[in-house]
Amino acid sequence: MTVRKLPIAKAINESLRTALENDPKVLIMGEDVGKLGGVFRVTDGLQKDFGEERVIDTPLAESGIVGTAIGLALRGYRPVVEIQFDGFVFPAYDQIVTQLAKMHARALGKIKMPVVIRIPYGGGIGAVEHHSESPETLFAHVAGLKVVSPSNSADAYWMMQQAIQSDDPVIFFEPKRRYWDKGEVDTDAFPGPLHKAVVAREGSDLTLAAYGPMVKVCLEAAAAAEEEGKSLEVLDLRSMSPIDFDAVQASVVKTRRLVVVHEAPVFLGTGAEVAARITERCFYHLEAPVLRVGGYHAPYPPARLEEEYLPGLDRVLDAVDRSLAY
């Protein structure tokens, strides 16, 4: 057994290193991923060890980066593309939505698109405009794309392995404000399916469903609620497309209440889909309407105001209290 305590950023680095070692067709591309090792140092040391032909510093041209990755995938490679910050992905959105997501269906299954697009996302780091977005729903809405986000180091390592091994394109959202959170990683313990939700904490009174950066907030909320005699179950969704609705349903049948939490705006967010599906599936089990906690339907504010924008412990616990009051 090989168990180490690693920050999420280092776990992703180790996962990329393993993939480069195991498969000569794996390539890493992006702005400053080579010599600099990425602005968050997630790819640190990889170009030094694997060379400039496998860890490639690209021009500042997101559409060109993704378009090149599509061409490489057509030639049998498995490119892993980094979009330096969440808000930088939009110049590449056309390539992702009209080409990458559609190629498999367009070719009647004869063409595979094993491309991973890594996107550091979310707020909480005091960044400037276009550096703190949560655009995951824009990609989850597009058929042909898998959309996932780890919340801890073990998932960061293994979900990256699974994403790279997938023959379908995967949008891999990395919670940048959690990059330095440490957790145990067992590189010998292969996990369950990539898109399976996981119970992060057992509970009986209410389910908190979250993914990525908000799982930690929900765990903190569950700990705080326990002091008041409330038992909250925390479900880490891990995947926004597809969503493991069976796991959510199983939890809600047990707790009879659900609050969905994410950083992205509540309006048309992942929580809206979860709320609609669970209301359909669990109508006679629910003792309160499904509630949602998330960002406001407004442009991400300047860093000085982001603590007011981001859903935190108080907003989650307020939703818990409202649900339990029904």
Helix content: 25-40%
User: What is the SS-derived class?
Assistant: alpha/beta
List the quaternary state of the chains.
Answer: single chain
Radius of gyration: 19 Å
Mean pLDDT equals 97
| Number of E strands | 14
Question: How far apart, in Å, are the first and last alpha carbons?
Answer: 48 Å
Total helical segments: 12
Topology overview:
Elements: E1 3-7, H1 8-22, E2 26-30, H2 46-50, E3 55-57, H3 62-74, E4 78-82, H4 93-100, H5 103-106, E5 116-121, H6 136-140, E6 146-148, H7 153-165, E7 170-175, E8 182-186, E9 198-201, E10 206-210, H8 214-226, E11 232-236, E12 239-241, H9 245-255, E13 258-265, H10 270-281, E14 291-295, H11 306-309, H12 313-324
Helix pairs in contact: 1-7, 3-4, 8-12, 9-10
What does this entry look like structurally?
The chain is globular and about 60 Å long. The strands form three sheets. A seven-stranded mixed beta sheet has the order 3-2-4-5-7-6-12, sandwiched between helices. It contains twelve helices and 14 strands. Helix 9 crosses helix 10. The mean pLDDT is 97. The protein has helices spanning 8-22, 46-50, 62-74, 93-100, 103-106, 136-140, 153-165, 214-226, 245-255, 270-281, 306-309, 313-324, and strands spanning 3-7, 26-30, 55-57, 78-82, 116-121, 146-148, 170-175, 182-186, 198-201, 206-210, 232-236, 239-241, 258-265, 291-295. Helix 2 (46-50) links the parallel strand 2 and strand 3. The chain is of the alpha/beta class and 326 residues long.
